[in-house]
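[stage:ingest] chain + small molecule (guanosine-5'-diphosphate)
[stage:ingest] validated
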Amino acid sequence: MELVEIVILAVVIALVAVGLVGGLVVGSRKKKLPPPPPSAPTITPPAEPQVGEEAETPRDEARRTIDEVGLPDATAPAEEAPVAEAPAPPALEVPEPTAGRLVRLRARLARSQNSLGKGLLTLLSRDNLDEDTWEEIEDTLLTADVGVAPTQELVERLRERVRVLGTRTPEDLRNLLREELITLLGPDFHREVKTEGGAETPGVVMVVGVNGTGKTTTTGKLARVLVADGRSVVLGAADTFRAAAADQLQTWGERVGARTVRGPEGGDPASIAYDAVKEGIAEGADVVLIDTAGRLHTKTGLMDELGKVKRVVEKHGPLDEILLVLDATTGQNGLVQARVFAEVVDITGIVLTKLDGTAKGGIVIAVQRELGVPVKLIGLGEGADDLAPFEPGAFVDALIGD
Ligand code: GDP
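[stage:predict] done
[stage:export] tokens:
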């Protein structure tokens, strides 16, 4: 081989080697790219340069800007400078008014409860209401989680009234069933969520329940309900047990302009709750909503923690409400949870979530019986405004149609 050929071969080998190393670097850079940012809805991270794209330096960008639009005007406002802009604050949402929400969500409720209402009406409409039919009526109620005692009461009253009625038109039966179900739901309960507070202090509502029942979501939805009613709200993220709970609550708050008071992960829930009320007083807020952690596996721990949160918050003034959040799809298990929480704190109202996902609406009746306190709100979906005040009449109408 001649010398010239050897030199050419050496150059070719060198070029191939450089190309390979370059490829490896690109490959390893690709591997080192940071994972995609978490999908936090309110913060838009600045765009990352893509592989293969030239990363633009600030100087390049400035030069391009000058080339394209000429020298910057010295009198132009500072924010027009071509530096990275802070993400715009999220636009505040206007929550849907609470009046008539149950009517809007009625179709959803009716769909999930179809078997209960329609089943009862069909059975009652049979020509011959024999023992078997009454047993079927009883089974329908029990299957819908109405509970043994309320079921027996209802069947007894229905039997009595059907007998008195004599001939039964479908209209008669519907009215009769409607009246009896409303009676069973306790039409005289006060179901408004109390948030008056004291002369100098905001209304304080503590939200308790087992994790996963929809407690944080409900706290967020309730904040929207209050904002829709013209109240100002501060949120207390005292569920320091579940890592994402504080972020989740804060996102709900930001959507409607409610500040969230939070502490370090695993921090003391009572001190966060205390600070939240303090912040509420300082801001002159109307209502403070406190989300708490619900770890049921250690009842003593739960009792200590919730009891302490309550006592510490009450240093500012009495609580207006302690709302227990129960997942309607958990049936009897939900009742067991209700019992445990009621031993720990004085529950003043129940929020029944996920009624859109179960045909067992009878749990409304059972849980009120169990605790002797009313269902005040019901959750009918994952949408931000899918929380409705509970109204027995509208609920029964959704069950049996009108
Ligand atoms: P927490 O652990 O009790 O605070 O539970 P979360 O508030 O995180 O809620 C758990 C899940 O239940 C979430 O996916 C919620 O969107 C969902 N959820 C809450 N309320 C409802 C409801 O009324 N209907 C339906 N379908 N889902 C709900």
